[in-house]
Amino acid sequence: MTDITSKYADFEGLREQAVALRREGLSLRQIRDRLHVHNNDILSRLVKGEPAPQWTKRPNAKDDLREKARGLRQQGMTYDQIQVELGCSKSSISLWVRDLPKPEPRYTPAEQLALMNAGLVELRTSREKEREETKRLARDAVGELSDRELFLAGVTLYWAEGAKDKTYSRRESLQFINSDPNVIKLYLRWLDLLEVARDRMHMRVSIHESADIPGAERFWAELAGIPTSALKKTTLKKHNPKTTRKNTTERYRGCLIIYVTKSADIYRRVEGAWYGIVLGADPATR
């Protein structure tokens, strides 16, 4: 093998030529061909310390982004703000601007907290508007119920909330209890559809003994369209001091119990209609 050292004995003279060519703007390949130096290690040593000409550098697609990121950082932007502005990763931003001084905080801790709270209020307001709009659209899409639709809705409501007959205890009669005024309104409207007269409905309030009993009685009587005197004796629930009640606001009015006399035939119709709904929803089970 030829001795590299002997081949390039005049290293310093060769380096002077290589440096001169480098400064003229030649690439390593061009210098190699001019000087006939085909050993990459020797070639690198000949031009060591001399920067490569600009035209030989491979363009970087992110150079423009890097300069923009540095400019934004110098304007006082945070990594998050630069990321939103340029759409690049925070890791890249960190590499590009880490030599720049950290910008002073725009806001004091108290101002930051106030801005955060204001943002949360705005977010909650926006979500609440979205919820209300969804409910409004769904409500308006229902429209007015036909008698058949009201009947089926009432059957479903009763079977979910009303008292049911048991094989071990025959109680074929309508007895319904609920605390939701709208549920009671729908149930009463359903009974009207079934032509159940008000004098067949025995109503009474069930409520905790520590609540506003007279207020609750007036509320339910007015909702049902009857005088308070028409209500049966209120059922009081004993207060257990070991438990913590959450339904203690002025909106708490207990429950209204509605018992329909001579309603065995209606009850049987309701039970039959309920299983008709079940089969109608899945005809394959027939």
What does this molecule look like?
The chain has 286 residues and is α+β, with helices and mostly antiparallel strands. It is built from twelve helices and four strands; from the N terminus they run H-H-H-H-H-H-H-H-H-E-H-E-H-E-E-H. The chain has helices at residues 4-7, 11-23, 28-35, 40-46, 63-74, 79-86, 90-97, 109-142, 147-161, 181-193, 213-224, 264-281, and strands at residues 174-178, 201-208, 235-237, 255-260. The protein has a four-stranded mixed beta sheet. Helix 5 packs across helix 7 (90-97).
Parts with pLDDT < 50 across at least 5 consecutive residues: none
Q: Bin the helical content.
A: 40-55%
- Please state roughly what percent of the residues sit in beta strands, choosing from under 5%, 5-15%, 15-25%, 25-35%, 35-45% or over 45%: 5-15%
Mean pLDDT: 88
- Would you list the SSEs in sequence order as H and E? HHHHHHHHHEHEHEEH
- Tell me, briefly, the overall form: elongated
Cα-to-Cα separation, first versus last residue: 96 Å
Spatial ordering of strands, largest sheet: 1-4-2-3
What composes the largest sheet?
A: 4 strands, mixed
Oligomer: single chain
Using only C-alpha atoms, the radius of gyration works out to 43 Å
Structural class: alpha+beta
Q: If helices are DSSP runs of H or I spanning 4 or more residues, what is the number of helices?
A: 12
Q: Kindly state the number of beta strands.
A: 4
